[in-house]
Amino acid sequence: MTRPTEAAVLTVSAAGAVDAEVDAVVVGVHRDGEQLSLGPGAVAVDAALGGRLLEVLARLGANGVAGEVVKVATLGATTAPVVAAVGLGPVEPKPGSPEPHENFRRAAGAAIRALVGTERVGLALVDSDPTLTRAVLEGAALAAYDFVQYKSELPPTYRPPVREIVYLADATGRGEIELQGEVDRVKAVTDAVRLARNWINTPPNDLRPPTFAAQAASAAAEAGLEVEVLDTDALQEGGYGGILAVGLGSAAGPQLVRIAYEPPTSGGEYKHVALIGKGITFDTGGISIKPAQNMQDMKSDMSGAACVIAAMTAIAALRPAVRVTAYVPMAENMPSGSAYRPGDVVTMYGGTKVEVLNTDAEGRMILADAIARAAEDSPDYLVETSTLTGGQIVSLGERISGVMGSTELLERVKDAGGRTGEPMWPMPLPDEVRSGMDSAIADVTQINAGFDRAGHMLQGGSFLSRFVPDGVEWAHIDIAGPSYNTKTPHGYTPKGATGVPLRTLIAIVDDIAAKG
Q1: Which residues participate in Mn(2+) 1 binding (predicted)?
Q2: Binding site: which residues?
Q3: Strands 82-87, 69-73: parallel, antiparallel or unpaired by DSSP?
Q4: By Cβ atoms counted within 10 A, which residue in 171, 269, 430, 507 is the most buried?
């Protein structure tokens, strides 16, 4: 039995933190040396409490570190019975600290997670800085999430996420109409993140390639987007050798979904962005089978696909002045009598012949076909994202994605990731890595020909680079670690699917729409 959950409702209120009709109010607290200080939006609450808010928080053990949440009963001093003070860290951030927008985004998320079981929460974290509004709303909305669809009964101790998040506009100096525009944008983006997270968290027996393709097509059509689905027969007719090689080891055949967005106004020259996402709905490793430990997390190997498809639904709602087309290959990598083998030579879409040395390097096989297909539509920019290599985690950890490709686009992607709180770091594609994948019998091997794992993340990028046409700005984003949180929740990030790098993809599209 599944148990559906709904997104939190986002609203704006002209009320202030003292008189808002909410069940709890969130304010911020800084740490200045040895002293606590009030964050923006907390002054009115402090006055209502007789100027004793900091004293009470200190007695309760608050120290103002980023993400700490301390709850205080107002005993009738404010309409809300509870004030939740969330730590914002030092007023002047230290080197290595998140930039202010991400700090507030995480703080709002931490507060909303601490208030599970609360029906209606008011946010009074900022005052006159309009640039922080979106970050606070995003963090709060992203944190109001859990995935309990497969629980037959919820335990007595279960407390659902916050149901309504109210942005309190009283001290911001911004009108409700202006703020409603921010709310609408945040809702489009966070609804898309929620859709991606739900797909990624779904058990792999309920999201095999044909089912995933059908659900993707349905979501895209509902958003008013053009959709084309190539099933296994169509892939065979079209010569998609990479997708077929990986997917024919499964009884659930591979698919390729193409989703297209056109700007709302006709005429003019619009840039064209291709988005590509890896859709391995479950990865056993194939004949080169993975160890059993943690294999269950390989349901998340379609995180790139989920984020690309869901991003398209947000793009349809936001209507940027740029053409965007998504190409999403989907397959299940299984060992069977029909699975591809080490030693096979696969003829890819477009004719490149690839010598297979490891069937667990399957993502690059399906992505190469998708990149070659995308190239036929002459994009100006090509951005691909995938849980491609364990080398990304070794190199950059579990929260920073690796990005490779064209120098100029890499910097734009890195900047977009920094602004959205999805950090990325540019990585090189050295000639020696590329030449290490020369095959003695085919055009290229899909891993180092000598099985050298040095620079493993770079090998994946180097392989994909061979399928990108000259003159196309491109970026490959490896999200192996950041896409799926196997540890405890933090900030606005739940355990399980995170939705990285969906917000970066939207930011890149917006940037290209604005600057070309």
Answers
A1: 283, 360, 362
A2: 278, 283, 301, 360, 362
A3: antiparallel
A4: 507
Q: Is 165 helix (H, G, I), strand (E, B) or coil?
A: strand
The reply to whether 94 belongs to the active site is: no
Tokens standing for residue 429: 């594609």
Both tokens assigned to 150:
């497969």
pLDDT digit string, tens, across residues 437-463: 999 999 999 999 999 999 999 999 999
Residue 1 scores a pLDDT above 70:
no
Would you call 323 a catalytic residue per the annotation?
no
**Given the residues 120, 194, 258, 364, the one annotated as active site:** 364
Q: State whether residue 8 is helix, strand or coil.
A: coil
Question: Residues forming the annotated binding site for Mn(2+)?
Answer: 278, 283, 301, 360, 362
Rounded to 5 degrees, what are φ and ψ at 213? Answer: -60, -40
Angle between helices 456-465 and 363-375 (to 10 degrees): 30
CA distance 405 to 142: 30
**Rounded-to-integer distance, Cα 463 and Cα 494, Å:** 33
pLDDT at 239 over 50: yes
Q: Quote the pTM value.
A: 0.97
State the Cα–Cα distance between residues 153 and 12, nearest whole angstrom. Answer: 34
CA distance 427 to 255: 31
For the stretch 21-51, pLDDT in tens is 999 999 999 988 788 999 988 999 999 999 9
The answer to whether 34 touches 63, Cβ cutoff 8 Å, is no
